[in-house]
Amino acid sequence: MSDTHSQLAFVRTEMLAQKEPPAKDKGAVKWVRTNLFSSWSNTILTLVAFYVIVKLIVSAGPWFANGLWDTNSLSECRAILDGARGACFSVLSERWQQLLFGIAYPSDQYWRPTLAFVIMLVAAAPVLFVKLPRILLVVTGLFPFVAYWLLWGGTFLTPLVSLIGVIAGYYAFKNVERFGFVLGLGAGVIVAAIVWKIGGALTASMDDVLALRAVASRDMGGYMLNMMLGVVCISLSLPIGIMLALGRQSHMPIIKGISVVFIEFIRGVPLITLLFVASVVLAYFFPPETNMDLILRVIIMITMFSSAYIAEVIRGGLAALPKGQYEAADSLGLDYAQAMRLIILPQALKISIPGIVNVAVGLFKDTTLVSVISMFDLVGMIRGPILASTEWNGVYWELYGFAALLFFVTCYSISQYSQWLERQLRTDHR
Amino acid sequence: MVDTTQMTVSDEVAISIEKMNKWYGQFHVLRDIDLTVYRGERIVIAGPSGSGKSTLIRCINALEEHQAGKIVVDGVHLTSDLKNIDAIRSEVGMCFQHFNLFPHLTILENCTLAPIWVRKIPKRQAEETAMHFLEKVKIPDQAHKYPGQLSGGQQQRVAIARSLCMKPRIMLFDEPTSALDPEMIKEVLDTMVELAEEGMTMLCVTHEMGFARQVANRVIFMDQGQIVEQNEPEEFFNNPQSERTKLFLSQILGH
């Protein structure tokens, strides 16, 4: 009996140290084995994929390599290539300005949208990267007014007056807010409206103070138009989407009702329909003398459309938060606005990032739909003036490939940024 | 360890509940609750699950709304008036079963958030207070980590510190140790005992009967939304009166 007992007993006297895994289970060898040749089916798929890639390179390679950059028309390209496979990139080198800025933007003013684009990058930086100095937010705040002045031209007084109006309205709001949020909001709007009215009257006769050459909205086009619509609509639809999402969760039946009806209605209508409403139908509802800018109408429609989607994405994020977070915020005595701003939204928005980026990327690409209502954005330029010209009729791959490349670069950057942001915000260390 | 049951209890009323009733839809969760808590009292509320004990203390800081009866906390009548509710909540600290720390903020930020935004205390001062209480719960070295990096026991102690940073006059505990490993239960209970020794008014829903014996000056037993029995811990455990209490105690102490 005592014998068996001593065989069962065991006491470890020293703990084992960590060892390296065997050679076939580490490094590149392991990667290739597990990822490319782990089984028969996997091996076959690897070989097929390899074949397809090689085939693609072999066939597309000469097309790029023989590409012509300095002819004046497609027929000239064909004559030089003489039946050989090759691209006619000359359309890009000859028409790139139209592709970027549209057909009617005065060519000696191209520096203005370019400058606006550069300032936009500076203005976006402090919003996108929290570590940058906060003082840069001043640029962000001023950007909309400067960009408007740069793009549309005219006197600098117009954006200046609207800026002063916004600042005055903000101070009015701040001072009245303690009597109630709604009162503050009302006071802010009224003060801003008064400033705009007076400012407008004062500056009416000063059209040439600090004036740039005016460019009409119908002369905006090319990728610039896509950028303008995309940037404005995304930055507007995010706050509106947040408000709609919170409204939909509200206990107040009227606010909740308005939010639900708005979201469900907008989501149930195709964007194209809304754009047609913007371009054609809207005019019937306004008095005949009002002449609302077409770009403004389109911005309103696209913003409404995407804010409804963003609202639903954010609602998903709100629903994903444990109830305990609301309760903890409540139990500490935070009021509704504080709880939302400090506790709930930071977490809900973090959860919603993939969905929001999805909507944003989709919206950015949807801006090409304005070509349907005869605005000459990038796709509108290609479909209209360029393909219709005698020189370039028939150049499809090069033009649409270029458009695809521009959109891909932008959208891929947005997506990469969002993934970086998600990693930055990860605090659960799972 | 100090026997805190003998500690003085003032005759100043901290919480008074009269004929309080609550329903979840058709279900009558709390029925005619009458309870007066004096300042400095340490009350343990026990009972089977579904007996309404959590709901009771959640009514005290209006996380749940009661439909009938009267609750007065610290002299403030608890109505649906948001001003009163916020006033009460900033005086009443609460710890939850699942800690409910804010995962996107560091430990220090968790502790300073409410003092800064609700009490309008300057950031520097709020951080000093927070560090003071984090030292008290013995985790000052974790101040700049995120809740996800801490063990359950540490998280619950942070939650206690977070409540204390608001300098509450009353603390509510809703099963603070139910989600913890045995090793961690002790560290949280030690913190709570310390708090009791300093004379904090405490209402604690817990199944830790050892804690109740050591710290409480009153044990309340609830079943089916009613207070079935309440007594000093000595009497409650050694000489329970109602059959329901005897059954509960035999089950909970039986193993």
Characterization of this structure:
The complex is a heterodimer of chains A (430) and B (255). Chain A is mainly alpha-helical. Chain A has 2 domains: 67-105 and 217-429, MetI-like (MetI-like fold, Orthogonal Bundle), CATH 1.10.3720.10; 154-212, no CATH class. Chain A contains 17 helices and no strands. Chain A has helices at 2-8, 27-35, 40-65, 74-81, 90-101, 111-128, 137-152, 157-176, 181-203, 222-249, 253-267, 271-285, 294-320, 323-331, 336-366, 378-388, 397-425. Chain A is flat and about 105 Å long. The two termini of chain A are 50 Å apart. The model of chain A has no long low-confidence stretch (mean pLDDT 87). Chain B is α/β, with parallel strands linked by helices and 255 residues long. Chain B has a domain at 13-102 and 169-253: P-loop containing nucleotide triphosphate hydrolases (Rossmann fold). In chain B, 38% of the residues lie in helices and 25% in strands. Chain B contains 9 helices and 10 strands. In chain B, the strands form 2 sheets. Chain B has a 6-stranded mixed beta sheet with strand order 6-7-8-3-9-10, sandwiched between helices. A 4-stranded antiparallel beta sheet of chain B has the order 2-1-4-5, with helices on one face. In chain B, a hairpin with a 2-residue loop joins strand 4 and strand 5 (76-77). The chains are: A mainly alpha (430), B alpha/beta (255). Chains A and B meet through helix 14 and helix 15 of A and helix 2, strand 6 and helix 3 of B. Chain B: Pfam families: ABC_tran. Chain B: InterPro entries: AAA+_ATPase, ABC_ATPase_HisP-typ, ABC_transporter-like_ATP-bd, ABC_transporter-like_CS, MetN_ABC_transporter-like, P-loop_NTPase.
